[in-house]
Q: What sequence folds into this?
């Protein structure tokens, strides 16, 4: 079965520091990968998807098929980035979500 | 209204009650989903509907009964729930099943006493 893992439940960084949220997946085909974000008291929403190759709110994510990873990165974290981040995989039949990483950006 | 709307936002019910959660999407999507979000587990897919037809039942107990009368509306009927069913229930939609991106509602926070 397809799986998405996010090894860190909680990640704390200081404002201005680089941040990397890890995501690994297990899938034999060519998946579509996403990052969803849930800010406090807001709905879960799409942050970015690998096929768009965009930078959203300063975040980027590169799909590494060799390492089956899709890590989310931002060079300089801001306090407003504090949120719950979910990595997700779409195998063409279902969306599969990872357990999530709570990012806390400290002042 | 636009997007995905869920009602009620909060619900408290006893184990013998019958209640329903409602979801409505104004995006013209054809696929709708119910997810369960709790502190102990990640997002759990419960049900998937495609063009009003159920395409996925992720081993959900029968005390949860979904209904999809049309592509814009999705219900989750609740009956004889257990305290461990207390969670945030999220509705989502997408253009087609497992295609494009998921658009989520704000969720219905359920507490079972």
A:
């Amino acid at each position: 079965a397809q799986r998405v893992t996010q090894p860190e439940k909680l990640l704390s960084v200081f404002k201005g520091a680089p941040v990397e949220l890890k995501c690994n997946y297990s899938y034999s085909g060519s998946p579509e990968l996403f990052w969803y974000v849930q800010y406090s008291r807001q709905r879960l929403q799409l942050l970015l998807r690998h096929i768009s190759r965009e930078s959203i709110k300063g975040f980027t994510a590169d799909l590494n098929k060799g390492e089956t990873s899709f890590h989310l990165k931002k060079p300089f974290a801001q306090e407003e980035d504090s949120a719950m981040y979910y990595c997700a995989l779409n195998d063409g039949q279902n969306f599969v979500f990872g357990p999530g990483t709570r990012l806390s950006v400290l002042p | 209204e636009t997007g995905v709307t869920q009602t009620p936002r909060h619900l408290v019910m006893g184990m013998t009650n019958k209640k329903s959660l409602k979801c409505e999407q104004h995006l013209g999507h054809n696929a709708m989903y119910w997810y369960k979000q709790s502190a102990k587990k990640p997002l759990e897919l419960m049900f998937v509907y495609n063009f009003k037809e159920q395409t996925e039942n992720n081993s959900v107990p029968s005390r949860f009964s979904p209904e999809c009368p049309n592509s814009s509306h999705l219900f989750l009927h609740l009956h004889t729930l257990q305290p461990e069913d207390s969670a945030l229930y999220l509705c989502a939609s997408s253009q087609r099943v497992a295609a494009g991106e998921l658009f989520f509602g704000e969720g219905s926070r359920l507490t079972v006493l």
The interface with chain B takes residues 34, 36, 42-46, 49, 86, 88, 90-100 of chain A (CB under 8 Å). Chain A has a mean pLDDT of 92.
